[in-house]
């Protein structure tokens, strides 16, 4: 019977997936989780919809509670911050945030899942009440409480990435007049400008102000509450501000322990989620992943990746031999009535990486025009000019985007060419798709641009 002690630092998606998989792998393993916040096993992707009022039961933010994990003999410690990892002594220093007590704990193996960090920029007035980041359950509860108690009329979202766009919609759902301030020239910087313009158009339709190429300089307030956001000569009224300027891997503990970081700034791991230090694994938003398109390390902080990496890390920390094969960077976001999705490389990324590539963009109906709910879908395919290997795809529309981006993600993961894509046998019925789906139309248009097209899966 194993007497080994597995310690998991961080108890969100990757951490609790690691704990659950480790328990299934070794029923006798001692498993202890330390989580700095007051919740574990929650999905941050649900926060904007909770704040918007799509659902009001805060217990639905959490997939499983510490009490439920305890039934699996997984001991969860909330409000406990790990201050230091000593790889030589194989111990950690922990602070109980409620009592201030500090203590050491020994481990045989450790899984680091400290996630990412959302930070407020060091600007004048950033600590005024009413200015929030959104990363934890506590953040989501505080934002919703502020909206219900203070009833703000004006809001500013700083940053127009995934969280910023979702929070603009969440604030608007409460009747708040919203302006978005983005320092870059477009919303969603990980898609191409031509697709981003469709987001800008939707925000305009929804009466959300979008100010790109604008840098916030300071926040102003009265009675310690925010009242204005200053950007150049513009002063935006705001009784609530959401700072959504991006997330970075929370690698402080790793760096201090001598754990190697990769080129993205996140923890470098192999396919087993092992770090450079024996018996220490890393998973989730703190760790890199292999980009299956480029073969290079990448950092894409999404819950899907975190859960998968956590399972691999947990199984291997318990003595297994699991492998994580990488990602293609698939994501989808709802911006009011518009659905935006992407997978693989953008055209800009592919060019910067030196690919001999080109792209096509087509717009076609999601269903036959006579069927209710039919709406245009714009699809952009990025592919290699020689041979036609698919490199990436982006899509925007009001109907059926999520269904189609997953097809393209699967094709990317399989290493398909646009010739393979053009031969897909896709489902057709008027309630779901037209005879010639936008995916097939785009693939056939792409074929016309390919030199010496190749089919990947011919036998």
Can you offer a commentary on this structure?
- With 459 residues, the chain is of the alpha/beta class.
- It has twelve helices and 25 strands.
- The chain has helices spanning 13-25, 47-52, 66-70, 137-150, 162-172, 193-205, 252-256, 303-317, 347-352, 401-413, 418-422, 438-447; strands spanning 5-9, 30-34, 74-77, 80-86, 91-96, 102-106, 109-112, 116-117, 131-132, 154-158, 177-181, 209-211, 218-222, 225-231, 234-237, 240-243, 248-249, 280-282, 289-290, 297-298, 331-335, 338-344, 357-365, 376-384, 390-397.
- The chain has a five-stranded parallel sheet. It has a five-stranded parallel sheet with strand order 9-16-10-11-12. The chain has a five-stranded antiparallel sheet with strand order 21-22-25-24-23, with helices on both faces.
- The longest helix has 15 residues, at 303-317.
- The chain is globular and about 65 Å long.
- It starts with a strand and ends in a 12-residue tail after the last helix.
- The model has no long low-confidence stretch (mean pLDDT 95).
Give the termini separation: 49 Å
From the alpha-carbon coordinates, what is the Rg to the nearest angstrom?
A: 23 Å
List segments where confidence is low: pLDDT < 50 over at least 5 consecutive residues: none
The residue-averaged pLDDT reads 95
Shape: globular
Strand order of the largest sheet: 3-2-1-7-18
Biggest sheet record: 5 strands, parallel
